[in-house]
Amino acid sequence: MQVRSSNDVSNPEDADKPAPPVLHLALAGLGWGLLTCVLCFAILIVTKWLLPPEYWGAHTGLAKFKREMSVPLLVFWVVIYSPILETFLGQLLPLEILRRLGATCQLSVFIGAILWAIVHFISGGLLHAIVALGSGAMFSFVYLRYREPGVAVAYATTTFSRACNNIAILVAVFYGLDT
Questions:
Q1: Which of 133, 144, 138 is closest to 99 using CA atoms?
Q2: For position 128, what pLDDT does the model report?
Q3: How much is the pLDDT for 14?
Q4: What is the pTM assigned to this prediction?
Q5: Minimal CA–CA distance to 82: which of 171, 162, 178, 177?
Q6: With contact defined as beta carbons under 8 Å apart, do 62 and 169 qualify?
Q7: Is the pLDDT score of 3 beyond 80?
Q8: Of 6, 47, 58, 69, which has the highest C-beta tally within 10 A?
Q9: Cα-Cα-Cα-Cα dihedral sign, residues 33, 39, 42, 48
């Protein structure tokens, strides 16, 4: 009987490739997270400028949670719980399904962004969906960018990227940039 590693399941021909160093992935996650935050704020500013307030929808951003939660609970929710769950539901599940169906990377990023925008439209309205379209595309891209070494590398990098993005947005909200 042959012993199989987790790499054998995801990509047998890459079994001999070492995983990238953790520090490299952490720095990549930090960079992608900050870039996504800048992109989201740019989309938010342009969208608020173009759309009248009656089309924005409910305000469900971090400012709402800031009013409703204690700071330690908010930090736990934003930095740990939310990135883990959202990366699983928003990237790992749909992108792995699309990968198994043979979708191209571009199509996967597009579908991942659309799905993420739909979820945010349902929970927060048009403005929230438009901003989520940008972040969904970025996080789908990050997941696929780091997918080659394996699912764990892609998931961890995207989760850390999402956590860094959320921290940057949380800091911005505490300084009144999202109100």
A1: 144
A2: 86
A3: 53
A4: 0.81
A5: 162
A6: yes
A7: no
A8: 47
A9: negative
